[in-house]
Amino acid sequence: MQGLGDDSAAAGRWLKERVGLEQRRREQLVLPIGLCLKFAVLVLSVPLILLQWGYRWPDIYDWYSQLFFGFHVGNTQVSFAVLLASLIVFGLAYAAARLFQGWLDAHVLKPAGISGGVRDSIRTGVGYVGIVIAALAAFSYAGFNLSNLAILAGALSVGIGFGLQSVVNNFVSGLILLAERPIKVGDLVVVGGEEGYVRKISVRSTEVETSERARVLIPNSYFITEKVK
């Protein structure tokens, strides 16, 4: 598994050359893939341990059937297998989105000569779209009615509007910064009493590196509502 983040390993070289994933992003795949493999080993080994302890195979089979294929709690059917599969669907869809993100940057945006700031904006937007698609795919696989989710989201938006005004404000401001690009990665800015070079723009905050080499996260709303030099 560690070979995913190692450029000298075959898997690491393939992900770097063919997909365009940077080493940091490849190293991020090690933990979730490792956890999935360990969980699979655990699921397969537990029945063998129970057999050694004297449990009968029909009983073990019934327990696993109820756990993975559903049991009722009142009028609600709970299926661990469906929940687990939904998490796997989300993980696969999210991983596919990140792979597409790296491939798009390495094989389309860079060869096209697009500047770093524009590439960063496109890459960030593609990443968030991928998260939304992955979440919708997981909810759909789990059997949730997406129309009900839309109603629930509408109801929650009222509470979110009152309780998370600053978060929503920063999110909308981030979208404006990514779309209109009044500032770009590499620009020297003075905002909120801080002066430095813009290193990263996300939908929540902007990372600025000061002359002392310190990294400061500034809420995006500052760049929309405050005076920026």
- Please tell me how large the radius of gyration is: 23 Å
The percent range for strand residues is 5-15%
Annotation field: number of helices = 8
Shape estimate: elongated
* Unreliable spans: none
Structural class: alpha+beta
What's a quick, concise take on this entry?
The chain has 229 residues and is an alpha+beta fold.
Structure explained in plain terms:
- This protein is α+β, with helices and mostly antiparallel strands.
- Helix content is 65%, strand content 13%.
- Strands 3-4-5-6 form a four-stranded antiparallel beta sheet. It has a two-stranded antiparallel sheet with strand order 1-2.
- Helix 4 packs antiparallel against helix 5 (116-141).
- The longest helix has 30 residues, at 23-52.
- The radius of gyration is 23 Å and the shape is elongated.
What are the salient characteristics of this protein?
alpha+beta, 8 helices, single chain, SH3 type barrels, 4-stranded antiparallel β-sheet, 13% strand, 229 residues, two-stranded antiparallel sheet
